[in-house]
Amino acid sequence: MPIAVISLKNIMNAIKIDTKTGKLENYTKRIVRKLSDMKEFYFNKSVVDEILSKNDPVIYEVYAFETGDSVGNLSFATTILYPGKIGNEFFMTKGHFHEKRDRAEIYLGLSGSGLMLIMDDRGNAYHVKIKPHSVIYVPPNHAHRAVNTGKEKLIFLAIYPSDAGHDYGTILEKGFSKLVIEENNSVRIIDNPKFKNQ
Amino acid sequence: MPIAVISLKNIMNAIKIDTKTGKLENYTKRIVRKLSDMKEFYFNKSVVDEILSKNDPVIYEVYAFETGDSVGNLSFATTILYPGKIGNEFFMTKGHFHEKRDRAEIYLGLSGSGLMLIMDDRGNAYHVKIKPHSVIYVPPNHAHRAVNTGKEKLIFLAIYPSDAGHDYGTILEKGFSKLVIEENNSVRIIDNPKFKNQ
Question: A22: phi > 0 → left, psi -120 to 50 → alpha, else beta; which?
Fold first, then answer.
């Protein structure tokens, strides 16, 4: 993980969150995830290919304020997860374990509604609702993925140890044990038949 | 630092913040700081004694959700800092270094307005405004104290490494290098003549 350079100005001013857009002032890193960046993460490959043959929607954006990666240092980021579905599967983040598995993470809902899937390394999973002014504690050794089950943008703040690191590869390889889908206009959380529990 | 016991129920539900009262649902620890608990922290001892001869106002309250104190784990807390002054000095928190000096902390303003004094171990200090939807990064090795300079309750969320620990003793002994006072209806940040820089 590169050591981010943060200026004194960045530290000496509060870093404002625009709760309408989710944008962080003075961010050090911005990520835009389009469908093409995460096509392996969705269940229905043929729907993914069909959508990508026409356009490449932005699924989510991240504005991060990352500090030096010493033990005990903290970084934070806002995520804007757009509403939508790939087939019947709701827009979601890639999801990740931390490279340092025992690093926890704290989330705070800012706008919109959705849920956080939280899974241990054997695939045992549960979910927590994301809504404004609610805090979600992701314990050490758990992967986590946000899912936008609403009609609006889902915006949340994440705070994480600066040395945590993001391991997306394990999720890419094994998948998440649960899928979050829409069925008969309801949100359903079902077992992922493609999940590789090994 | 004791290892907090958190129930599965606490983890599997989002922990709601009541932004009017600042109260956290499912907190594991509550602290109420009255003036008598922190009388040594204010500059004007005779004003403190005069107030305490009549009553003992609550200066601030904390609702904390503390998790096990392993390296990389995270805890969080809301603070409700009441408006008021002791003489011309605004209501404030005790302020603390972390016992593990290199642990950082992240604050998010929720309601009201004030400022965070941030000071290194030689007394070099700066301040950052606290306001709703603004994030404050407290770097490793810095003490920090919140001050309510407004007329309303100042409510904020803090996220900190669970193994950080609170060192109030150093502040009790040396003081903060700056005082935040009201003068001619303005907020002023002045040098603390009693600060012990050693």
Answer: left
Q: Which domains does chain B have, with CATH numbers?
A: 8-191 (2.60.120.10)
Interface of A with B in 117-176 (CB under 8 A): 126, 128-131, 133-137, 139-140, 157, 159-164
A128/B104 CB distance under 8 A: no
B124-174 pLDDT tens trace: 999 999 999 999 999 999 999 999 999 999 999 999 999 999 999 999 999
Of A65, A187, A170, the C-alpha closest to B135 is: A65
For A174, residues 6+ apart whose C-beta sits below 8 A from its C-beta are A123, A195, A196, A197, A198
Look up the pTM and report it. Answer: 0.95
Closest C-alpha among A42, A11, A12, A25 to residue A145: A42
Per-residue burial over A128-147, b = 16 or more CB atoms within 10 Å of its CB, e = otherwise:
bebbbebbbbbbbebbbbbb
- What HEC string does A6-57 produce? CCHHHHHCCEEECCCCCCECCCCEEEEEEHHHCHHHCCCHHHHHHHHCCCCC
Buried b (16+ CB within 10 A) or exposed e, A62-75: bbbbbbebebbbbb
